[in-house]
Specification:
mainly beta
Length: about 325
């Protein structure tokens, strides 16, 4: 599933000047929705990055129970969009929920929907906008949609497509670009493709960059200002580092997760990434130290509920 933009020091400085800085957006991560067929959940867990052993704290739920959703956000809020209802009414979802990080008990607020319902998509963003790309509708999707964070009622605006229509894709990004990696195509199976979406360009097709080191789907992705990490997927523990400035090099494999899993989600800050949940279902959260390319991920406190196919911000 998916991840969010990770803020640089310049982002923090700018947000401080604008008076919108919220501490929770820097020191914590949120894992929302998910499940294991036929179950689906509205649960949103808050992970404190500084606590490696504490169980995640449940906060206000999503407005609608679903899995295979994707999430992004900025320093004050998170947005969980798309997804799938398995039971009782199996259907794709277009809902986008806004979670206010400073409020642990309020139900997420529904905002303007995606332009079409889909699931198994990836999301990333910057301080002002979020982008949801790929997915299944049914059928492979290449659409990338821009959600304007300041507008809670407008339908998402469709922008230039991915270079390859696929689902079970994940995304990460920085202030100027987003990267969608891996995924699954019917027919054809798993993919290693990584597409770069230029946020300033709403109509251009995404530019293909160097592939993941191994083709897989149902990964989790996170990043910082210079690099992105795609981890797990299809029962694998591999974590690949994508160098944002390099469009042609194959992703560099780094230290693995503590165990292989799929259907996990990831978030992070400037120094570390956290990969949580997964098929099983799993409640484990692994911490990846971005500066260490060979060490196995460190297990930290579990989610409050074991589940897969969540979104994280």
């Amino acid at each position: 599933m998916a991840t969010q933009h990770i803020f640089t020091l310049s982002d923090v400085y700018r947000q401080s000047l604008e008076g919108t800085w919220v501490l929770q957006g820097w020191n914590a991560g949120w894992f929302g929705g998910g499940g294991q067929a036929p179950a689906k959940y509205t649960t949103v867990d808050r992970i404190l990055f500084s606590a490696d052993t504490v169980t995640a704290v449940a906060k206000g739920p999503l407005s609608q129970a679903r899995l295979y959703l994707a999430a992004t956000g900025n320093v004050s809020d998170g947005w969980f969009g798309g997804g799938h209802e398995i039971s009782p009414a199996a259907a794709e979802v277009s809902t986008v929920d806004r979670v206010i990080f400073s409020s642990d008990t309020a139900t997420a607020v529904a905002k303007g929907p995606l332009s079409a319902a889909s699931y198994a998509l990836g999301a990333t963003g910057n301080t002002t906008d979020g982008w949801w790309g790929g997915g299944y509708r049914p059928g492979n999707i290449s659409t990338v949609e821009r959600v304007i964070f300041s507008s809670d009622t407008a339908t998402a605006v469709a922008k230039g497509p991915l270079s390859l229509a696929r689902y079970n894709v994940t995304a990460t990004g920085n202030t100027t670009d987003g990267w969608w990696g891996g995924g699954y195509v019917i027919p054809g199976g798993v993919r290693s493709t990584v597409d770069r979406v230029i946020f300033a360009s709403d109509t251009a097709t995404a530019v293909a960059k160097g592939p993941l080191s191994v083709a897989r789907n149902y990964t989790g992705a996170t990043g910082n200002a210079t690099d992105g990490w795609f981890g797990g997927g299809a029962g694998k523990s591999t974590v690949d580092r994508i160098i944002f400035s390099s469009d042609t090099a194959t992703a560099v494999a780094k230290g693995p997760l503590s165990s292989g899993t799929e259907g996990l989600a990831a978030t992070g800050n400037s120094t570390d990434g956290w990969f949580g949940g997964g098929s099983g279902p799993v409640s484990k959260v692994d911490r990846i130290i971005f500066s260490a390319d060979t060490a196995t991920a460190i297990a930290k406190g579990p989610l409050s509920l074991a589940r897969g196919y969540t979104g994280a911000v």
